[in-house]
Design a protein that fits this description.
The complex is a heterodimer of chains A (211) and B (130). Chain A is α+β, with helices and mostly antiparallel strands and 211 residues long. Chain A folds into two domains: 44-118; 119-210, Sandwich (Immunoglobulin-like), CATH 2.60.40. Chain A has helices spanning 2-5, 9-38, 56-79, 88-109, 112-116, and strands at residues 121-125, 128-131, 138-139, 141-145, 153-156, 167-168, 174-176, 189-196, 203-210. In chain A, strands 2-9-8-5 form a four-stranded mixed β-sheet, with no helix packed on it. A three-stranded antiparallel β-sheet of chain A has the order 3-7-6, with no helix packed on it. Chain A starts with a helix and ends with a strand. With 130 residues, chain B is mainly α. Helix content of chain B is 55%, strand content 5%. Chain B has three helices and two strands; from the N terminus they run αββαα. Chain B has helices at 21-46, 68-90, 100-122, and strands at residues 56-58, 64-66. Chain B is flat and about 65 Å long. The model of chain B is unreliable at 1-17 (pLDDT under 50). Classes of the chains: A alpha+beta (211), B mainly alpha (130).
């Protein structure tokens, strides 16, 4: 039957190649659709931000992409050819949509809350440090994410270790290790807590290894 | 025989017992596009695709707020997309242009959305709340 459509051997070869490619593309498309239906290709975060919230800029870009792709497909099918020119207005429309998405991401990542993706946070620096008993005081720093730079932070040690395992200044984060004990303390670990004054649910913990 | 210039599923105009290659390709691409659109649309409406807090913005301190600028952006987007698709279905001879007024309105809508987002994200927050 293929021979009926082919005038020469080369026509026949081109026709067979065309059908092979089309069957391959159809199979590929079918697998993609099947995976989307079964959830193997997970679309649940298609328009989500890193923190799990939906993004309007992603949604509008998705809508315009679908609309222009469908329109172009229809025009090609009915016109039997790719359009000679893409209208200026369509390019501007896609430009507005895409650049709005990009600017939106720029605004989001220009603030610390957007980067963290999970609300305000405190991060003690360093997270783990070894301090010799009787050694020099050690100063902890804290990075504020999604909190004002000048917002207060309260430093503390667990009540069980305060005094015996050193002291920490609640305002400055300066840790003073204890004097060498006799018998030795056995290289214990001490937790350091930093808690936001404005938002007490925001805190972080670091570890001191007494050596 | 049908006129091939008016029948999207007849590229060659030749009648054969097997489908024309171009005709089959059209069917495959149409089925794929329709499938992807149907799955995406269904999952968006059913909530399988996450739409949590689609209309909520976030301030610098992490607080959420209802965001009218997002609502208006969605309305403008749906309106422009729907109008454009109707134009294409009305005249399939060439890709229709988008008029300047529509582009200006859409640009203004996006500017409002971005301005609101920038203000919420970058404006100083007092006492942890705004």
């Amino acid at each position: 039957m293929l021979l009926a459509q082919a005038n020469t051997t080369f026509d026949l070869l081109a026709l067979i190649a065309g059908w092979v490619i089309l069957i391959f593309i159809a199979a590929l498309g079918g697998v993609i659709i099947w995976c989307m239906v079964t959830g193997t290709i997970d679309l649940s975060k298609l328009i989500s931000e890193p923190n799990g919230d939906a993004s309007m800029s992603r949604l509008q870009l998705l809508i315009f992409t679908f609309v222009i792709a469908t329109s172009l497909f229809l025009i090609i099918v009915y016109g039997h050819a790719f359009p000679a020119t893409i209208p200026q207005g369509v390019l501007v429309l896609l430009g507005i949509s895409s650049s709005s998405y990009l600017v939106s991401k720029g605004i989001q990542f220009s603030s610390a809350a957007g980067v963290s993706g999970s609300g305000p946070a405190l991060i003690i620096v360093p997270q783990r440090v070894a301090v010799p008993c009787g050694g020099q005081p050690f100063t902890f720093e804290v990075t504020r994410v999604g909190l004002d730079d000048d917002s207060g932070v309260k430093w503390s040690l667990p009540p069980t270790s305060a005094g015996t395992l050193g002291l920490i200044n609640p305002d400055t984060g300066v840790y003073t290790p204890p004097q060498p004990a006799s018998p030795p303390l056995g290289c214990p670990y001490v937790e350091v807590h930093a808690t936001s004054v404005t938002n007490p649910s925001v805190m972080d913990v670091a570890l001191i290894h007494l050596i | 025989m049908k006129d091939p210039s008016h029948d999207p599923f007849s590229f060659g105009g030749e009648v054969s017992s097997i489908p024309d290659l171009a005709q089959a390709a059209t069917f495959v691409i149409a089925a794929f596009l329709a499938g992807v659109a149907a799955i995406t649309g269904t999952q968006l409406l059913s909530g399988t695709i996450n739409t949590r807090r689609l209309f909520y913005g976030r301030r610098k301190n992490g607080d959420y707020y209802f965001s009218p600028e997002r609502v208006q952006l969605l309305l403008f987007t749906v309106w422009v997309a729907f109008t454009y698709l109707l134009t294409v279905f009305g005249n399939r001879s060439k890709l229709p242009d988008v008029d300047t007024q529509t582009l200006a309105l859409l640009g203004g809508s996006h500017a409002l959305y971005l301005g609101g987002k920038a203000f919420a994200r970058l404006a100083p927050v007092r006492n942890g709340k705004d």
